[in-house]
Amino acid sequence: MSTLRFARLIEELPATVPFVGPENLERSSGRTFLSRIGANENVFGPSSNVLEEIDRFKGTSWQYGDPELLELRSAISDLLGVDIDEIVVGEGIDALLGYVCHLFIDPGDTVITSDGSYPTFNFHAKGHGGQIHSISYVSDHVDLKSLAESASIKDPKLIYLANPDNPMGTSWDSEDIDEFVSGISERSLILLDEAYGEFAGDGVLPAINTSLTNLIRFRTFSKAYGLAGLRIGYAIGHRDLIREFEKIRNHFGVGKLSQVAALAAIKDQGHITHTLRLVEESKARIYRIAADNGLRVIQSDTNFVTIDCGYDGDYARQVLESLIRMRVFVRMPAVAPLDRCIRVTCGTNSDLDLFAQSLPIALAEAGE
Ligand SMILES: Cc1ncc(COP(=O)(O)O)c(C=O)c1O
Questions:
Q1: What is the CA(97)–ligand 1 centre distance, in A?
Q2: pLDDT(57) > 90
Q3: Distance (Å) from CA 237 to ligand 1 centroid
Q4: Which is it for strands 189-193 and 215-220: parallel, antiparallel or unpaired?
Q5: Among 222, 254, 303, 332, which residue has the most ligand 1 atoms within 8 Å of its CB, making it the best to mutate?
Q6: How many angstroms is it from 355 CA to the middle of ligand 1?
Q7: Cα–ligand 1 centroid distance for 294 (angstroms)
């Protein structure tokens, strides 16, 4: 028995890996996936300018990245028209969510999220001893009204929501989000996760207003920019809030090559336009494949499509497991009633050829 004295909070946490990656599934099955369309990565990848810049700078890998990330923050500031002091960059949204939990949560503090939404917020909130209060989805959307009502009763320190949402791919219009934000007490910080923001149609992302002291918005280079493996995201908020991150963030967390890549990526907005077109085409094909199999889809504002398998979680899980056996990596929502669905990331033509071929077999196997 170890005599090490872990923090009490840590001793209470389960020692399980919460995120089972495709690599883990490949190791346990001994077979690689032929189609990796489950983690909402951008299979179309980054711009060729990004790859050239990585190549040009690879010899500087021995250097730490700029801890102030000045060039990258300037580029983001130019793109979005916000001040450089209103931007913090981190190792993906995932890490930034962890930093916010570190900044705000004392053990026992209440936070509010939606039941079945992107799980990393819960992971970090639990890791800091937060008491999570979850609101059910309504019609496959985050339930803004119930979130606000619950916030007015529970006085949470943090309220998390993703718009567009993962795992359902749905979104609220900017006016709905603005109205929601204006109805929340200034004592509660709203964490608005816009990881899929670039994919959303006009009218989904509210205008940026950094004078609000209780709103922080998260964006990432992992999705539209195609750089999930390099771990870069950023948050935008009031400068007083952004300054607090200096107390706890991992200043050397975003490496030199990640910074170089993100800078080149942000300068190539033409590539984003191109990517959005490919994603739309892929999404339309996933809709068709679902329809060909008699399945309903949930209209998506993201780079993935959530397909309603028509029954309960057990049935959808069988469909998912069959697809995985046929070497198609997809995922599914974790809680009912969302778990009647599987979630398919936009893929290349050959990814979707395999999906189209495998789905009817998976449905037949699940029906047996
Ligand atoms: C809603 C949402 N937020 C954040 C992330 C992760 O972003 P990052 O790669 O920047 O950590 C994801 C990834 O799937 C996501 O779906």
A1: 10
A2: yes
A3: 18
A4: parallel
A5: 222
A6: 24
A7: 30
Contact criterion met (CB below 8 Å) for 351 and 43: yes
Q: Using the 3D structure, point to which of 267, 287, 315 is the last residue of a domain.
A: 267
Identify whether 135 is part of a domain: yes
Q: How far is the CA of 173 from the centre of ligand 1 (A)?
A: 20
Residue nearest to atom 2 of ligand 1 (CA): 195
10 inside domain:
no
How far does the centroid of ligand 1 lie from the alpha carbon of residue 195, in Å? 6
User: Residue 292's domain is classified under what CATH number?
Assistant: 3.90.1150.10
Q: What is the pLDDT of residue 14?
A: 84
Residues 78 and 201 both lie in one domain:
yes
Tell me the β-bridge partners of 220. 233
Residues 65 and 27 occupy one common structural domain:
no
Q: In what order do the strands lie in the sheet with 304-308?
A: 296-298, 304-308, 341-345
The answer on pLDDT for 18 being more than 90 is no
**What local confidence, expressed as pLDDT, does residue 86 receive?**
98
Decide: 165 in ligand 1 pocket, CB within 6 A: no
101-138 pLDDT, tens digit each: 999 999 999 999 999 999 999 999 999 999 999 999 99
* Structural domain count, the chain: 2
Q: Is residue 7 part of a domain?
A: no
- Could you tell me if 246 and 290 lie in one domain? no
Mean pLDDT for all residues in the chain: 97
How confident is the model over 225-268, as pLDDT tens digits? 999 999 999 999 999 999 999 999 999 999 999 999 999 999 99
Nearest CA to ligand 1 atom 3: 195
Residue nearest to atom 16 of ligand 1 (CA): 166
Q: Are 300 and 167 within 8 A, CB to CB?
A: no
Alpha helices in the chain, H assignment, sequence order = 8-12, 22-29, 48-57, 70-80, 92-104, 120-127, 144-154, 174-182, 239-244, 256-267, 269-292, 313-325, 349-367
Domain of residue 37 covers: 15-45+270-367
pLDDT of residue 9: 93
Take atom 12 of ligand 1 and give the residue whose Cα is closest.
195
